[in-house]
Amino acid sequence: MPAKSMDELVSLCKRRGFIFQSADIYGGLKGMYDFGPLGVELKNNLKDAWWRSMVYERDDVEGLDSSIIGHKLMFTYSGHTETFNDPLVECKDCHARMRADHMKDTSVCEQCGSTNVTEPRVFNLMFKTNIGPIESEDSVGYLRPETAQHIFANFKNVVDSTARKVPFGIAQMGKAFRNEIIARNFIFRVREFEQMELEFFVKPGEDEKWHEYWLEERLKWWEEQGLPRDKINVLDVPDDDLAHYAKRTYDLEYKYPHGHDEIEGIANRTDYDLGNHTKAQNEFDLTAEVHENKDSNSKLAVLDDESKKWYVPYVIEPSAGVERGVLAVMNEAYTEEDLGDGKSRIVLKFKPHLAPIKVAVIPLKKNHDGLGAKAREIKNTLQALGLGRILFENTGNIGKAYRRHDEVGTPICVTVDFDTIESDNAVTIRDRDTMEQKRIKIDELEDFVKDFYQAAQSRDSKAAA
Ligand code: ATP
């Protein structure tokens, strides 16, 4: 049962330390958010899951971590300086700014109803900066608006250093910046965000098959993160809405509290990107319309083993947003449960691999030497398993601790009590979802926790298969 509204999520995120407005002590920076103690764990877990499935569990993808600031020529040849624009309309009365392509009527202000508005004008979304001490046109660089262009620019480096043959992919996760006209819906549309992008290079003619393949793979992956398929619309983007570089695009639209909206785009970008960035463009039978490139010093092409001809590969690009992913998995995990007797609880039923805290170890009494020492010993042993964060929770109120860990989605709580240290060398384990408690020996705890996380992982991959 997802959250009833975005406000419920925003409030939980702040209260429990997932997400804060950036620079809120100075009134906040619009379209920027900071991930708090639990948010950073959740975000890293989602990114780890993506990297594992895209790189480690495959044999045809290499990773990359490129610079964030990009060469201006890279964004000239990619088409971003010319076309990465949104149409901006401003109201001369209330000074509201709006995206013309999101307005019902571009002659009427959506905020105050005035017709005293500007004509739509193009607004480039890239953040411009200067590299080095001199500010001039020559020193201009851009904060990347997507991670993809650096992947294309590194195509030859990766091929030469790994001897990869098409089909293969290059995966990258990292920051992207877009000076959105309006940032809205919490972390859904922000100005600084992270992307998880794969550029998968294929032989022209095999592109459609691979496009379908990646659509299916990505739906399976989101299911493993807790988003059921029936909550994701697959939009086959109509031709007149396609980006100029795309032959076909599937948008995956998750049902957010504000409505269905894009969580990931899976585009067939043809040979547009490598074709634009390659030198000697005339030597190849490019299908995309490209800008003439006199600056590149590399051929971004591969040799076809059969025909012995060089060609520029096509690209299939699954590109997902980390913030939009975090918002979706939080929304889907959010559950309000009626416990009877007028009592209820809020619990985040994250898939265990995404939970920010894997196990909370709670001594029954706060600041008690014997209980504390045993709880710390257990924490350290479990921490060494490498599953993620294990928390020593020294608050001394078991009821409150359980409530707090339900609300942040901790799958297992371990309570250390007086019997633990005085008689039975056992602890109480409480399960987040069933709230069942059982007693197990400390000797068996390590295996129990390991098995719990392994079983959860294999259950999720089987369910999505
Ligand atoms: P939209 O139409 O919502 O602006 P887009 O089609 O421009 O998105 P892409 O260029 O395909 O987005 O970027 C790939 C992914 O990056 C998106 O599916 C989304 O998850 C994420 N993304 C893009 N812009 C933003 C943003 N402003 N804030 C957060 N995530 C974003």
Low-confidence stretches: none
**Tally of alpha and pi helices:** 13
Spatial gap, N to C terminus: 23 Å
Q: Structural class of the secondary elements?
A: alpha+beta
Tally the beta strands: 24
Distinct small-molecule ligands in the complex = adenosine-5'-triphosphate
- Beta strand %: 25-35%
For the CA atoms, what is the radius of gyration?
Answer: 26 Å
Helical residue percent? Answer: 25-40%
Question: What global shape is seen?
Answer: globular
Question: Largest beta sheet: what is the strand line-up?
Answer: 3-10-11-17-14-13-12
Largest sheet: 7 strands, mixed
In round numbers, the mean pLDDT is: 96
Written description of the protein model:
- This protein has helices at 6-15, 37-56, 72-77, 80-83, 148-153, 155-162, 207-224, 272-277, 322-333, 369-383, 398-408, 418-424, 445-464; strands at 19-21, 33-35, 61-64, 69-71, 85-90, 97-99, 121-124, 127-130, 140-143, 168-177, 192-202, 232-236, 248-256, 259-270, 302-303, 310-311, 314-321, 334-340, 343-348, 357-363, 389-392, 412-416, 426-431, 437-441.
- By secondary structure, it is of the alpha+beta class.
- The strands form seven sheets. The protein has a seven-stranded mixed sheet. Strands 21-20-22-23-24 form a five-stranded mixed sheet.
- The longest helix is centred in the N-terminal third of the chain and has 20 residues, at 37-56.
- The relative contact order is 0.11.
- Bound molecules: adenosine-5'-triphosphate (ATP).
